Amino acid sequence: MSPHVLRAATALLALLPAIAGAAPAGEDHAPLQLRLLWAGDPGGGSPSGDSMDFDLFGDTEEQKEASIDPTLAGRIETRRTMLQTHQILGLSTLALMTTSAVLGQLNYTDVYGGGGRTGDYLMAHRVATYSSAGAFLATATFSIFAPVPFEKDPGFDTATAHKIAVIGATAGMLAQVGLGFATARAADAGNAKDLKRFAQIHQAVGYSTVGLMAIATGVWVF
Amino acid sequence: MRSVSWKKSALVVLVACTAFTAARAEEGAPTQQEAAKVQSTRWAGKGKVEYVLTHKLHQVVGVTNEPEVMLVIDDSGLKVMARAKVASFKSGNGNRDAHALEAIDAANHPLVVVKGVALGFKPPATPGVVKVPVKAQVELKGVSVPRDIEVTLDFKSPDRAEASFSFPASLEAHQVERPSLMMIKVEDALEIRGKLALERK
After folding, report:
1. For A7-23, how does the pLDDT look when each residue is reduced to its tens digit (9 = 90+)?
2. Least CA distance to A24: which residue of chain B?
3. Which of B141, B81, B150 is nearest to B116 (CA)?
4. Phi (first) and psi of residue B123, to 5 degrees
5. Whole-model pTM?
6. Which among A50, A68, A217 has CB closest to B119?
7. Rounded Cα–Cα distance for residues B28 and B24 (Å)
């Protein structure tokens, strides 16, 4: 082959990429090299089969991992365990408080409502109230000390209503303790009138406390 | 003699070039088949996605207005990917939302991702509504579950479309421990629905 033919053939070969790179009508105008990259790009290539092995957002592994907080998992697990326990203890507390109220009413009727002053319900009411107080304290502990891994949006919601009701119930429980001391003093002094008045207040506060506890539990339904 | 040989060579190359260019031009001319080819387009979208969760005592609707959607349509069909931060779903109760994030392990899996493919899909030539059966995969809590989703695409113009969809999902299929209220677990089945505005990029 003459050197001229060789030279011409070389020129033709040099032209080939430009010719091949010209996009056919109806396709994008990316040069051949870019289009080859595009076809091999899992992030944005054309659908090939029904494989889901693609990422149209083109996130890198580093970007994906950057959005993960490895320290959160442990706190979340602890919080879930503590709040599940809180839920079980809370329902148990409500049951114990209701029992206390029923026994308290029976005791009140026995002592002040024309009953035989037998004192049959006194010990049972006392045990139920102490148990309620213990369960209430334990319930509160599991809620107060639970870690908070996610920030909550501010504003009034079910949890706010729950907290308000629980604060009211706590005040009721503390008032019952104060009333207990006052009632005991009145009993020691032999002041029957004061004793009945304190018993009536104790009864009203007791029912209110059970009511607030029921609200604190019931608000979760909404 | 040498001059004749050079001319011959030049003639051969010229003929070859002409033939090659003619062949390319013929290839480049749009045949009917090629005219039917779909130009590759990319679409991006935003909108609203909701989940509806049912408990014996009430129903919960969680909404996010921060989903991201990317869609590719070309001659082999449609490919779509949508994602949203799980923390962006709001149900109107911050405490419940925090519990939801705990249940779906948002610390390690902060995104819910849906990928789908509709092979052979071709956008309508004129504006209109098309129902597209999409073979999809829903990833929640790092667990991918295949799901057939029918997406309604309303092409408003060559550059604008609206997508709407609704499909059932299962919490347990994604290994999500169902949260309970009053010791009663929420139902396993939930509904995912959404409406997205798409724009051609």
Report:
1. 555 554 444 444 444 43
2. B28
3. B81
4. -65, 150
5. 0.58
6. A50
7. 6
